[in-house]
Amino acid sequence: STIACRRLPNFVSNMSKPCDGAKTEWPELVGRTIKEAEEKIKADRPDLKVRIVPVGSIVTHDEDLNRVRVWVDMVAEVPKIG
């Protein structure tokens, strides 16, 4: 599906596609693997740095228009000693 152009300031967090056509968020990646998310973001916007961040991590509050944070919170395998 096509996302309509939204004329909102860059700092509005729910904006997914500004009028210049560059994608700014990827709601379709929720529930996907980290690898899938990273590959899709890099395919759509090779100009961005993708950062994988565990939910609850302390991060800077600066706005970096060249960075996408992928927030992850999932145990993928059984934790075990050894």
TrEMBL record:
Keywords annotated in UniProt: Protease inhibitor, Serine protease inhibitor
Alphabetized GO MF terms: serine-type endopeptidase inhibitor activity
Pfam families the UniProt entry points to: potato_inhibit
Keyword Disulfide bond among record annotations: no
Domain of life: Eukaryota
InterPro entries recorded: Prot_inh_pot1, Prot_inh_pot1_sf
GO annotation, biological process: response to wounding
Keyword match Metal-binding: no
Membership in a protein family: Belongs to the protease inhibitor I13 (potato type I serine protease inhibitor) family.
PANTHER family: OS01G0615050 PROTEIN, PROTEIN, PUTATIVE, EXPRESSED-RELATED
UniProt name for this protein: Subtilisin-chymotrypsin inhibitor-2A
